[in-house]
Amino acid sequence: MSVVALIDYGSGNLRSAEKALARAAQERGLAREIVVTPDPAVAAKADHIVLPGVGAFADCMGGLTRLTGMVEALREAVLVRRVPFLGICVGMQLMASVGREFGDHKGLSWIGGEVVRMSPSDPDLKIPHMGWNDLRIIASAHPVFAGIETGAHAYFVHSFVFKPTDRSHLLATTEYGGAVAAAIGRDNIVGTQFHPEKSQATGLTLLGNFLVWAP
């Protein structure tokens, strides 16, 4: 049975993500063991890896680095072994070169770019951006977005946004006083600013696609 490592570093809605992944696997008839773990040894051997994240960039990065050996295990698994990886919300943002929330903080630097505070063109739009928004799918051929079309609804909760250096890494956007990165990715790595575990049919489709993804 394939192992899906859901990384527990003190910064994520783990129960909801675990349940959503299990349901997505069940609906596809997949034999997947969803393992919530703070253990780098488990992450190192996993077949798929999910990194959730809720809170401030620096706090999440600090929580990850405090798990001795975890950053190195993730780097080996994702960048060397090319294990399929999904970052969710701040888990996606941590892939950036730098996060600029309450100062500048180094990220994992897996995808070049910065995480900056949202600045919608409409001053009446509230920050944080919270609630349901339509997706605009840019990379419609990406396997993780199979069956998800522009206009699909997804659930967002965030005040900061990932701005990738290379626009080709932008997989989907949403509109909130301007185009906002909703998903980014390259190679075996994908990240969503929205929460698939809270995005009902859209989220379950994406998670199911991720669980069968073999880049």
Q: What is the chain-wise order of helices and strands?
A: EHEHEHHEHEEEEEEEEEEH
Radius of gyration: 16 Å
Mean pLDDT: 96
Query: What structural class do the secondary elements suggest?
Result: alpha/beta
Corresponding CATH superfamily: Class I glutamine amidotransferase (GATase) domain
First and last CA, distance: 19 Å
* Tally of helical runs: 6
By DSSP, the count of extended strands is 14
What are the segments in which pLDDT stays under 50 over at least 5 consecutive residues?
A: none
Helix content: 25-40%
Kindly report the spatial arrangement of strands forming the biggest sheet: 2-1-3-4-14-13-12-9
Strand content: 25-35%
Main beta sheet, described?
8 strands, mixed
CATH architecture type:
3-Layer(aba) Sandwich
At the first level of CATH, what is the class? Alpha Beta
- How many domains would you count in the coordinates? 1
CATH fold group:
Rossmann fold
Global geometry = globular
